[in-house]
Amino acid sequence: MFRRLVSVKIGAMDQALHAVIDMNEMVWNRLKEDLKDLPTEEVNWRPLPQANNINLIVRHLRIEAQWKLASLERGEPEPTETSETVQQFIASISFDYERNLKELDDLCTRFVAVLRGMDESTLLKRNQLAHGERGRQHFLSFHHPMHLVMHHGQIRAIRTLYRKTRGESVPAQFYPDNPSYPCADG
Questions:
Q1: Which of 24, 131, 175, 179 could form a disulfide with 183 if both were Cys (CB 3.0 to 4.6 A apart)?
Q2: Per-residue pLDDT tens digits for 140-171
Q3: CATH number at residue 149
């Protein structure tokens, strides 16, 4: 009976890990789709002079994805303070949208591939190495897609504002077709 319970528990853990892997892949693919074929003007447009633009957000995501991948692959700690080394690394990443988007794609694709090849105990160890005591609140395989989702919402809002300031009607993809969520025009 003990073996049966262990195999059921391991099966549940495998299912949970597969769900997390699928979530990471789906979140990245949806964001990537919304970032395809954007004109330079839209990538660099800001709703206010001090606001973020899509170019800046993609650069930020690219930087963070590199740190998260290093944590997942090797258990490297993510920077929590801005040391001179961290600042030099950040400064070395240009504001080249196309290059950063390609790098972000490579990093997110590798993140999912590494997760696919990992068992739960290795994931837990890498998370502990990367985050120490913060590990329970900053779980790598969950924090990464949540970070992408939060910025995806920001990017969608910027894209919507960009179109509205040009008198364009906002495509349906930016407002769910759901009666409990009325569109801005209604």
A1: 175
A2: 888 899 999 999 999 999 998 999 899 888 76
A3: 1.20.120
Mean pLDDT along residues 106-132:
90
The full DSSP string for 64-115 is: HHHHHHHHHHH-PPPP-S--HHHHHHHHHS---HHHHHHHHHHHHHHHHHHH
Contact 148, 28 (CB under 8 A): yes
Phi, psi of 180 (to 5 degrees): -85, -5
| pTM over cut 0.70 | yes
Nearest to 112, CA basis, from 72, 78, 76:
72
SS3 of residue 134 by DSSP = helix
Place of tokens 């504002």: 161
| Residue numbers of the domain that contains 132 | 27-166
Rounded to the nearest 5°, which phi and psi values hold at 136? -70, -30
Number of domains into which the chain is organized: 1
- Return the number of other C-beta atoms located less than 10 Å from residue 39's C-beta: 9
Which 3 state secondary structure label does DSSP give 159? helix
DSSP letter at 170 equals P
Sign of the torsion formed by the C-alpha atoms of 58, 105, 35 and 27: negative
Nearest-angstrom CA–CA distance, 132 and 126: 10
